[in-house]
Amino acid sequence: MLLEVRDLHVFYGRIEALKGISFGVNQGEIVTLIGANGAGKTTTMRTISGVRTVAQGSIFFEGRDITGIAPHERVKLGICQAPEGRGIFPGMTVRENLEMGTYVRGGKDSQKSADLEHVFHLFPRLKERIDQNGGTLSGGEQQMLAIGRALMSRPRLLLLDEPSMGLAPMLIAQIFQIVRSINEEGISVLLVEQNATQALRAANRAYVLETGYVVKSGSGSELLDDPAVRAAYLGG
Amino acid sequence: MNPVVRSLRQVGASLAGAKAGLASRWNAMGPTQRLSAYVLGVLALYLAPWWTEIPLLGSIVDTPGTQFTTVLSDRVIIFVLVALGLNVVVGLAGLLDLGYVGFYAVGAYTTAILTSSHASLPWLLALPVSIAVSMVFGVILGAPTLRLRGDYLAIVTLGFGEIIRLSAKNAEWLGGSRGINDIKHPPSIGPLKFGVVDPKPYYWLGLTMVFAVMFLLHRLENSRVGRAWVAIREDEDAAELMGVDTFRFKLWAFAIGAAVGGLAGVQYAGKVGFINPDNFPLLLSILFLAAVVLGGSGNMHGAILGGILVSYLPERLRNFQDKRVFVFGVALVLVMVFRPEGLLPKKVGTRKAVAAPGEGGAQ
């Protein structure tokens, strides 16, 4: 298993946001966590990236216990996140934003150019905006930039937190299409979504989070057909 | 629109026009012309003590009541050095430090202790030691506090500045409120006599320090460290998720800022020869911050300009007597209203980057 989360407990002050969740991502999979606001999805992502500390439980990446290591070390190992709300650097140009993705690798310029080319192939719009400041992009473009920036780090596991948030339906379809093609290149994806229908269609496997617990899991299509899931998350 | 605002806008517009004109002329110059322009500029700065002798310029720049060169050596150079250092902390890494005077004081006091009756070491030896000690204080303050953000960090640093001042006031071996005198001057080299009468050598020494610091900081800004700082300032969370060791680089910003602040303190102590805790009030921290923000937080040249204005203008405006602080305050407010990013805003998106692949290729 590429990523394995075991009995994870995380607190915000005295409030327990994650109450012992366990799940995993296999090499090459798209796995999605769905759930309502406050279910603990973003907390889970931030904990895997290492910016939230774990109270109890552990996280394994490629069999190695990474529970205690620093966020930047995790990026080096190949875990990179496109954060919720895009989290791009607004005062940097598109190019500079993307180059920040290669920060941990250092890396030669020729490699960087190849990676840039790859990202521009996935997101031609970013190339048109290359010298524009990140903050001046539209919401969809910022989302593309956040994903592209994460890809620049050459992750083994890509963490996508709400990539469809605030986007028009057309763009949402496009983003999910791109997620699939990223996955086809061999990058495993952990996807957090409120847009459950799209997420379940794209995912190999899925987990349903509710108030800090995993309440259900199964393949994407199983959960799509599950009446309870349909009633709760897919609008009946 | 009221006429004052309109005329100010016009002044702003004509300044912008002049700037654009200068920029285009600058771009049209060849490399040798540029080099000679630089050399002339630097030379003019070293000759600043004689600016007051030039007919028209002299009457504009000269400071009433205080010798122009003394203003340069005791105030302007110090503020410029401090602004350069604080700009790393506030402007580049985005950490609000309201106690920066503390590092300035640490630099000055370390030099004072080492060169006065305590140890009687030469100034030249005290210089690197004081810088190192200031840096250590930067780390001591930074390590526990840099996990705080924004307002909280500002309050803690505010406390730090006061702790340093009050410690100096209450420690008998630091001279208490009498302070320390007999601080050694820098060593005289040939005709350059660092004494008490002539401020010129101190100005030249300080100016040289400014250039050295500018050179080092410029190198740093364009390195991986500089990129990490800017990323932290832009969005600390995102920087962390991109693999920037945010804590380490914030600590670096603090340490380097502290070192430059300490250097300014060394220069000050070596010039005036005696210091006491009243030389390091909270107000100085505020003025230092005002210099950086006024000039253009995040832009080294802006910080320098801010340092010059904040230190020089109150001296120039001395004729207004007790109204000068008011005039100075109004000037600050006006700048912030019309240039909220400072006089020379930071440039974004102009850093040299790797070539874009397949420029112009159809997708």
Q: Brief description of this entry?
A:
The complex is a heterodimer of chains A (236) and B (363). Chain A has helices at 41-49, 71-77, 94-100, 109-122, 124-128, 139-152, 169-184, 196-202, 220-225, 227-233, and strands at residues 3-12, 15-25, 30-35, 56-61, 64-65, 79-82, 157-161, 188-193, 205-210, 213-219.
Record the SSE blueprint.
The complex is a heterodimer of chains A (236) and B (363).
Chain A lengths: L2 E10 L2 E11 L4 E6 L5 H9 L6 E6 L2 E2 L5 H7 L1 E4 L11 H7 L8 H14 L1 H5 L10 H14 L4 E5 L7 H16 L3 E6 L2 H7 L2 E6 L2 E7 H6 L1 H7 L3
Parallel strand pairs in A: 3-8, 3-9, 6-7, 7-8
Antiparallel strand pairs in A: 1-2, 1-4, 4-5, 9-10
Chain B lengths: L2 H26 L2 H16 L8 H7 L6 H25 L8 H15 L7 H23 L4 H21 L29 H22 L2 H11 L1 H6 L4 H27 L9 H14 L4 H17 L7 H15 L25
Helix pairs in contact in B: 4-8, 4-11, 4-12, 4-13, 5-6, 5-7, 5-11, 6-11, 8-11, 9-11, 12-13
Considering the chains and any ligands shown, give keywords for the structure.
heterodimer; A: 236 residues; alpha/beta; Rossmann fold; 6-stranded mixed sheet; 4-stranded antiparallel sheet; 10 helices; 27% strand; B: 363 residues; mainly alpha; ABC transporter involved in vitamin B12 uptake, BtuC; 14 helices; globular; disordered C terminus
Walkthrough of the structure:
Chain A is an alpha/beta fold and 236 residues long. In chain A, 39% of the residues lie in helices and 27% in strands. In chain A, a hairpin with a 2-residue loop joins strand 4 and strand 5. Chain B is mainly alpha-helical and 363 residues long. Chain B is 67% helix and 0% strand. Chain B is built from 14 helices and no strands. In chain B, helix 4 runs parallel beside helix 8, helix 4 packs across helix 12 and helix 5 packs across helix 11. The C terminus of chain B is likely disordered. The chains are: A alpha/beta (236), B mainly alpha (363).
